Structure formats: structure tokens, C-alpha cells
TrEMBL record:
The lineage of its organism: Bacteria, Bacillati, Actinomycetota, Actinomycetes, Streptosporangiales. PANTHER family: POTASSIUM CHANNEL PROTEIN 2-RELATED-RELATED, TRK SYSTEM POTASSIUM UPTAKE PROTEIN TRKA. Pfam families: TrkA_C, TrkA_N. Residues 137-218 form the RCK C-terminal domain. The keyword Ion transport applies. Residues 1-117 form the RCK N-terminal domain. This is TrkA family potassium uptake protein. Keywords: Ion transport, Transport.
Length: 219
């Protein structure tokens, strides 16, 4: 998979390193010469250019990318890059970083954003997840489908404890995508059982979150 990352600061470089280690091709784009630190991510392609300009994205061959990550520290830049990637180059997946929570409402499909990541929201969600059992915690929003990645730690007295995944009548537009149990990540099958203390990860539409929390015995 070929991934272009607009913004080669600490965040962009960190994402690039992770993707390269997983076998992907990565192009880092930044208009600041100070940000072009090839020695820090030597296996990536680098492009000194303004990712808000069509000519720069032409040079980047954005049409060959399966994913674009708008990871700069400027929300305006991230929105413009997202819109251009989606509308001008038809990039299938656009992920955008939100720097200021007040701008979160802008990061949706009208700006070409498929997944919006707000660092403050993610940090607060992780704090909630660390201290709360039985609370449904929203970790990430997938804007295009109005769906969220949510997590709940199954309480000791949860009514679903011991039940098979396949026997549960889950709410509509809900998918159980992972079970975290005793340090292991389980890809759930219909025969797996739900156990108290399991951390359950779902992709679910926002309007069924309350129903899902009630079903799982959450608060």
C-alpha cells in the first residue's frame, strides 16, 4: 500500500516509521526545509513542497496512493489536503489530524475526511478507558459512515457474561471487531464467549451507542 503523509513533523514521521515497519510505501511531504529530515526516516520518500498546491500533489503522484494522512499542525492545511486528495485524486482513504477540538465539526465527508483523529479526544478517551468499567468510551470517529470506534470493559455482573458472541442479538449497525483479554487480542468468532473483564471493541453507529451500552450492562 502506498501512503502519502502531509506534514513531516514529529507526528508525521512517527506514522511513517510505523507504516514502513509494516511493509508499506510512504511518501512524506512538507513545505518547510527544516522538516525534511531524511536521516530520521531514511526508507521513506521525501518531497519538499506545499501539499495544498495541485502541482505539488501531481509531483507526489497522489493518484497512486491508497491512503493520504493529513498530519500537519495546522487544521486549515489538513482540511485542504483532505479535500484535494478526495476530490481531485480520488484517494480511497483520507485520515486527518485535528489539532484544535473547536474545529472538529469541520472534519467530515464534505471536506473529504474519512477518519478524523482528535488527539485531545483520544487522550481523554484513553483516560476514561483506563479508570472505567462498564462505561462505553468513544475512541475514534469514522466520519463518512457516521460510525464510531467504541470500547467497553464488560462488568463482573454483565448479563452477557458467558454467552457466545454468535448468540447475542447485537443492535443494528454494530460490529464487534476485537476482544482484549489477559493481554491478548482476539478476533471474535461466533463461538467465542464473552467473559467479565473483557475489553470489547466495536464499530457502531452513534445512534445505537446507548442501546449497546445497556445490552452490555454498562452505565
Amino acid at each position: 500500500m502506498r501512503v502519502a503523509i502531509a506534514g513531516a513533523g514529529a507526528v508525521g514521521r512517527s506514522i511513517a516509521q510505523e507504516l514502513l515497519e509494516n511493509g508499506h510505501e510512504v511518501l512524506l511531504i512538507d513545505k518547510s526545509p527544516k522538516a525534511i529530515k531524511v536521516e530520521m526516516v531514511p526508507r521513506a520518500e521525501w518531497l519538499l513542497a506545499d501539499a495544498c498546491e495541485i502541482s505539488a500533489l501531481d509531483d507526489a503522484a497522489l493518484e497512486r496512493c491508497q491512503v493520504v494522512v493529513a498530519s500537519s499542525g495546522d487544521d486549515k492545511v489538513n482540511l485542504v489536503v483532505s479535500l484535494l486528495a478526495k476530490t481531485e485524486y480520488g484517494v480511497p482513504r483520507v485520515v486527518a489530524r485535528i489539532n484544535h477540538p473547536n474545529n472538529e465539526w469541520l472534519f467530515n465527508e464534505s471536506w473529504g475526511v474519512d477518519v478524523a483523529v482528535s488527539t485531545p479526544r483520544l487522550l481523554s478517551a484513553l483516560v476514561e478507558e483506563a479508570v472505567s468499567v462498564g462505561d462505553l468510551v468513544r475512541l475514534m470517529t469514522f466520519r463518512q459512515g457516521e460510525a464510531n470506534l467504541v470500547e467497553l470493559t464488560l462488568p463482573e455482573d454483565a448479563p452477557l457474561g458467558g454467552q457466545r458472541v454468535g448468540s447475542v442479538d447485537w443492535p443494528r449497525d454494530t460490529a464487534l471487531v476485537a476482544i482484549l483479554r489477559e493481554g491478548r487480542v482476539l478476533v471474535p468468532s461466533s463461538d467465542d464467549t464473552l467473559e467479565p473483564g473483557d475489553e470489547l471493541m466495536f464499530v457502531a453507529s452513534q445512534d445505537v451507542e446507548d442501546e449497546l451500552a445497556t445490552l452490555l450492562g454498562g452505565r
